[in-house]
Amino acid sequence: MADTFTFELVSPERLLISEDVESVVVPGSEGDFQVLANHAPVLSTLRAGLLDVVLPDGKERRIFVRGGFAEAGPENLTVLAQTAIDSADLNKAALAQEIQNAEEDVADAKDDQTRDKAQDKLDQLKLIRDTLGLN
């Protein structure tokens, strides 16, 4: 059995994951990097992308993250993300409907502030769709 380390994923709302894993590929701002047990200490900001997590039983999880940072060490990895969505929780049809709703919100906005907020939401939804290959 491969060595494991503790992986924690935290969003502003809650602790999403805290478990032992074999590896995690992190979308760092300077490029993707893989964290394994006994990793050298690293601190990196995140770019929008996917965390690819390999569990001790060999199963994999893919989690979309945007914004935040990752701190790796020999025994743990902590990812603090502004946005974190497990790909297993996403439904292609529901995401398409959310995008359509957001496009309508942009079109219906009565002022610049409302339009900008709606456009930010639309951009984030499209980024999730494109990153996960759901288009």
Q: What is the CATH C-level name of the largest domain? A: Mainly Beta
Number of domains: 2
Q: What fraction of the residues are assigned to beta strands by DSSP?
A: 35-45%
Could you list the spans in which at least 5 consecutive residues all have pLDDT below 50? none
Mean pLDDT: 89
Report on the biggest sheet: 8 strands, mixed
Task: Give the N-terminus to C-terminus distance in angstroms.
Answer: 37 Å
Structural class: alpha+beta
Order of helices and strands: EEEEEEEEHH
Tell how many strands the DSSP assignment holds.
8
Radius of gyration over C-alpha positions, nearest whole angstrom: 17 Å
Explain this structure:
The chain is α+β, with helices and mostly antiparallel strands. The protein folds into two domains: 5-88, F0F1 ATP synthase delta/epsilon subunit, N-terminal (ATP Synthase, domain 1), CATH 2.60.15; 90-131. The chain is built from two helices and eight strands. A hairpin with a 4-residue loop joins strand 1 and strand 2 (15-21). Helix 1 packs antiparallel against helix 2 (112-131).
Topology (elements, then pairings):
Layout: E1 5-10, E2 15-21, E3 23-28, E4 31-36, E5 42-45, E6 49-54, E7 60-72, E8 76-86, H1 92-108, H2 112-131
Parallel strand pairs: 1-8
Antiparallel strand pairs: 1-2, 3-4, 3-6, 5-7, 6-7, 7-8
Helix pairs in contact: 1-2
